Amino acid sequence: MNAERRNLISQGLLLAFGLIGPFLFPHYIQQITLLWIMVLFALTWDAMGGQMGYNSLGNIFFFGAGMYICAVTQIMVAGYDVGEYTSAFGAIHVDISDGQYFAGLFLGLAVAAVGCVFLAIILGRIFFGLRGPYFAIGTLGIALAAGELIGAWDWVGGGSGISLPLYPAEADFFPGSGDDESMFFYTLALIAAVATFLFYQWLYSTRFGLAVNAIRDDEEKAEGMGIHTLRYKTVAWASSAFFMAIAGGIHGNIIHFIEPLEVAFPTVTFGIFMVAMALLGGKGTLWGPVIGAILFHVIKEVTWTHLLGWQWIALGMIIIVNVVFFQQGILGWMKERWPEAFGVTVEGAPAQGSETGGGSN
Asked: Which of 12, 14, 146, 357 has a CA that sits 20 to 30 A from residue 196's CA?
C-alpha cells in the first residue's frame, strides 16, 4: 500500500469517527470535543517546533488572546458595554436575539483569528531574532505575562473573568437546549480540527515544507541558499495563531466562563500538553501530532477518571518515558521498525511508496 492510499484511508477512518463518535458515545461528547481541540493544539505546535525546529512554549498565548477577543466581540455585537457587562459579571439581564447571538459568535471567531495573526506577525518581528532555548523561554514569557496583564485589566473582567455565553432570553432551539449546544460546539471543534489538518497537509506539500525543514536543519545554510527565513517563520507562527485563536473562541463558549490564568492562558496544562502530544506521536510529521493527541487525551481522561490524585504522576511518567526512550515518537519508532511500510528503501529493496512534502507522514 503506497503512502497516498494509506493517508486517504487514515483520513477516512478519522473523519468517520468524528461523524459517528457522538452517537456511539453520547455521554462523552464534551470529552471528544476536547479531543479535536487537542488535535488542533498538537498540529499547530508542530508547525513551529517539529517542522521548523523553533520550540515555542508560548503558543497558548494565541489561544487565550483569541478567547478574549471572541468574547469581547460577542458582547459588543450584543449591544452591551464591555466594561459594564464584565463588572456586573452576568448580573445584568441579557436580552438578545438568536441572530445577534450567532452573528456575535461567528464574527468573534473571525475577528479573533485575524487579530491573532496580526499579533503573531508583530511578535515574530521581536522574537525571531532569538534561537534555541532563548526563543522557547521568550515565548513562554509572553504567555505568562499575558495572563497577569489580563488579570489586572478591569475592562475585560480582570481576575474575575467574563461569564459566557450571551444567550437569547428565550429560544426554542439552541442555544436554549443543552444537547443542541453540545452538538453545535462539537461540530465546530471537529470542523476546526479537520480544517487545520487539511491546511497543513497542503502547506507541507508546497515549497513551504521544504523551506521550513531546511530552516530546522541549518538556518544559516538556508539563508545562504536564498531562502527568506523570516518570511517562512512568520507564516508558520501566523498560521498557528490563526487556528489557536479559533480554538480559544470555541473553548471559551463551551465552558461558559473565561478567566485569565487557568482558562485563557493555562501554560502549565494546555501549554505543556500541546508539546507533549507532538513529541509523543512524532514531531516533524503530519500524522504524528494527531496520533499523539489522541493517545495522550485518552490516557489523560482515563487517569483523571480512575486515578484521581495520581493523574499528574501518570502523565509525567508518560512524558519522561517518551523523552528518554522514544525521542522519535510513536511514528518515528514505527518507521524504524517497519521502514518498508513508509516507503523507505532497505538494503536496496524498492520503496513501496513515497511521502510528499516536509512532514506528510
From this structure: 146
